[in-house]
Amino acid sequence: MAIDADPNSCLAENLGFAKAESIVGTCEDISKNMDKIPSGMTKERFIGMKVQEAVEEADDFDLLVMGRPEGPGCYCYVNNLLRDMTSKLTTSYDFVVIDNAAGMEHISRRTMRQTCTLVLVSDYSIIGVRSTKRIYELAKEIGIKIDGAYLVLNKVSGPVSAELRKEIDASELELAGTLPYNEELVKWSISSKPIFDFSDKTIKDGIEGIFNKIMERKKCR
C-alpha cells in the first residue's frame, strides 16, 4: 500500500495515476451532498466506506491519496480519518509506505504512531542534514515509536566530506545510501511519465542498494 499524504500530491502521478480520487475530495463531495448518505448509516461510516472505495489498484500495489482542501480549513478531520484508515489498512498489506510533505508538520500530526522504518531524505548540504535531525528529534519527543531511522542523501555531486559526515553522525540517523545528481532524472521529471518508465541504471542501482540495506536491518516490534 502506497499512501500519498502530501497535500501537494505528486506520488500518484509518479506512480502512473493522473486522476486518482482523494480522501479530501471524498469528504468534500459528501459534505456538499448529504442526501447521498443512506438512511440508517452515519456520516462517519459512509465516509469510511467511500474512502475504501477510493483506493486505487495496480498490478503490484494499491494507492490511497490524501489530497488537499479546495477552500480554507485545516486538515484535522482528514488527518484523523487518514490515521484511522491507515491503522486498519496496515493489517491487510505486507508493506505500507507513506509519502509525507517535506518539513516537520506531518510529524506533529502523528499520522502514524508507530513506524517500522523512518526514512528521511536530505539534499547534499549540512543545512539539509540538520533539518532531518530536527524532524527525527521531534518524532521521538512526541512519542512516535520508531524501530529504525535512516537518512538518504539526494542529488549528491561529490564525495561525502568529513564535515558533512560529522553532521550525519550527530543526527543519529544511519546513512542508508546516496543518490547522485542525474541529468537524465531531471529530464524525466519534466516529462510527466511514471517512475516505472525511468531506466537509468545508476539511479535504479542506488535505490535498490538503499532498499536492501534497510530491509537487512529492519526490525518491527
Helix content: 40-55%
Please tally the helical runs, counting DSSP H or I stretches of 4 or more residues. 9
What multimeric state do the chains show? Answer: single chain
What number of domains? 2
Radius of gyration: 19 Å
CATH class of the largest domain reads Alpha Beta
Low-confidence stretches: none
What is the straight-line distance between the termini? 20 Å
Which structural class best describes the helix and strand composition? alpha/beta
Biggest sheet: strand arrangement: 2-3-1-4
Question: What's the CATH H-level homologous superfamily of the largest domain?
Answer: P-loop containing nucleotide triphosphate hydrolases
What coarse outline follows from CA principal-axis ratios?
globular
Largest sheet, if any?
Answer: 4 strands, mixed
Strand elements, count: 9
Q: What proportion strand?
A: 15-25%
What is the CATH fold-level name of the largest domain? Rossmann fold
CATH architectural name of the largest domain: 3-Layer(aba) Sandwich
The ordered H/E elements are EHHHEEHEHEEHEEHEHH
**Rounded average pLDDT:** 83
Walk me through this protein's architecture:
The protein starts with a strand and ends with a helix. The protein is globular and about 65 Å long. The protein is 43% helix and 17% strand. The longest helix is centred in the C-terminal third of the chain and has 17 residues, at 201-217. The protein has helices spanning 11-14, 23-32, 43-53, 76-89, 105-109, 126-141, 162-171, 183-189, 201-217, and strands spanning 2-4, 56-57, 62-65, 97-99, 114-115, 118-123, 145-146, 149-156, 174-180. It folds into two domains: 1-100, no CATH class; 113-221, P-loop containing nucleotide triphosphate hydrolases (Rossmann fold).
